[in-house]
Amino acid sequence: MTNQQPTATLTAAEALAKRRQLLDDGFCIVPGVLRGDLLDRMRQFSDDFLDTHAVDHKFRYQGSDFHIMTKEAWDQQQDPRRYHDPIVKDILDLPAARAACDQVGLEDMTSASSFILLSKPPHGPPLYWHQDATYWNHPKSALPWPSRVFLSYYLVDTTRENGCLRIIPGTHRKRTELHDLLPDAHSPEMQRADESHLAFTEQPGEIDVPCKAGDLVIADGRVLHAAWPNNTDTRRTLILAWWDLFPFPSVPTWWEGEPPPEVHADPHATYEHSRRPTHHLR
Ligand SMILES: O=C(O)CCC(=O)C(=O)O
Ligand SMILES: [Fe+2]
Prior knowledge:
This protein starts with 11 loop residues before the first helix and ends in a 38-residue tail after the last strand. The protein has a single domain, classed as Jelly Rolls, CATH 2.60.120.620. It is about 25% helix and about 20% strand. Helix 3 links the parallel strand 2 (about 65-70) and strand 3 (about 85). By secondary structure, the protein is an alpha+beta fold. Strands 1, 2, 3, 4, 5, 7, 10 and 12 form an eight-stranded mixed beta sheet that branches. The protein has a four-stranded antiparallel beta sheet with strand order 6-11-8-9, with no helix packed on it. Fe (ii) ion binds near residues 130, 132 and 225. 2-oxoglutaric acid binds next to strand 11.
C-alpha cells in the first residue's frame, strides 16, 4: 500500500481501558485506524458504488445494505445480490486494525470475508433501535465477552446532525424493557414501520457516539444501537464488517478467575437461530 501514514498504537493502559469498555458498555473506539491512501480509496469506491446502485425502499432506515465480498468468498456463494471487490481484503487485512484488535485482546477472530456498505443519504431518516445478535438460544450469548463483533468505520466525521451512532451502554448483557418490545432487527415488520414506532424514540441511558472519519468502532453484536437522521446535504457512509471471536467454548487467555458456567455447555450442541433475547439475557 502506498502513502500509508504511520499507525497510531494504543498504550498498554489505553488498550486495557478499551477492553474494559467493550466488556462493560458493549463497544469501544480506537481512533485513527483507517487513514491515508486506503481511506481515500474507500471513499472513492463507496461514492462510485452508491452513485450507480439504487437502494431498495425497505433499506431506507439503514440507508443501504450492500454486501461486498472478497472474490474468493463471492465465488463460493454466487448470490447475484452480493458484490465483490479487491478493496474488501485491504479493509479486512488492514494492519492497523489487526494491531488494535490484538492490543484490545480480541482472540481467534474470523471475518465473514465481506463488509456491508451502509450509507445514510443526505436528509436520510434515522435508524431504529435494534441489536444484531442471532444466537440468543446459544449459551455463548450469556458470556461476559463477545462471540461476535462488528468493526465499523464511518468515512466522514459523524455528529448528531449527520446521523451519528447511538448506543445504550450495557444492554449487551442487561435486559431492558425495550428488548422485549422491539421487532427483530431488519425484519419486514421493522422495515414496514413508520417513524412514530417505539423503535425510533429517545431511550433512557442512551448516548451519542460521534466518530472521526476512520476511527475503528468495535461493538458487541448484542448491544442496542440506533442512529440519528442525517440532516445535512452530505452522504454519511459507513462500512461494517462482522467478525466471530473467542470461538465457543474457548475462554479469553486474559480472563481472570473462574469462567462463567455457560462455557461448560456441550460445544457440539446446535441451537436454532434467534434474534430475540432469551433467558440468556438477564
Ligand atoms: O448506521 C449506523 O450507524 C449503524 C448501522 C447498523 O447498526 C445496522 O445497519 O445494523
Ligand atoms: Fe446494527
